[in-house]
Amino acid sequence: MFPILNTKRIVLASKSPRRQELMKGLFIPFEVRTKEVNEDFPEDLEHTEVAAYLAEKKAKAFEPDLGPDELIITSDTTVLVDGKVLNKPANKQEAIEMLKQLSGKAHQVISGVCMMDNHKKTVYSDITEVYFNELSDQEIEYYIDKCHPFDKAGAYGVQEWIGYAAVNKLVGSFYTVMGLPVHRIYEELKNW
Fold this sequence. Notes:
- 33% of the residues lie in helices and 26% in strands.
- It is α/β, with parallel strands linked by helices.
- Strands 1, 2, 3, 4, 5, 6 and 7 form a 7-stranded mixed sheet that branches.
- The longest helix is centred in the N-terminal third of the chain and has 13 residues, at 50-62.
- The radius of gyration is 17 Å and the shape is globular.
- The protein starts with 8 loop residues before the first strand and ends with a helix.
- The model has no long low-confidence stretch (mean pLDDT 94).
């Protein structure tokens, strides 16, 4: 018998194919719903809180439509390097600049999650430290041209070429870096 007997209908509110794939890996039935949500955040917000803030903001957009037996899961991921938050790059030049900032350094990837039904809400973050090798300008251009990482925080996907070639160490969850800390979601679902 499956270890979680959840009577809620789980809704993953994410367009991200990576997040959907990670949820499938838990073997928990879910459906996908999406809405456009403005991803601005207050400038004075603590950088480590941005991902959780945005995850909660996304969940609140679904609050009026949430059925009595539904549990919504939203997530957001940010990259933090040298005290700066890197979200998704707007264009190739911004992606190049982001990857140059990450080259040869450690940075944090923070995935925030909000889980909410009509009676309860849980918001949390999971942080993974990622260490990059030095990247040449040619390697950065090659990766961007090959993988088009414009929908990814920090302009990279750890599961793509750059993860194979440049990431030399992770402290934390690989799946948090991919955008969804499924180990934390699983633990939370046990207590829902």
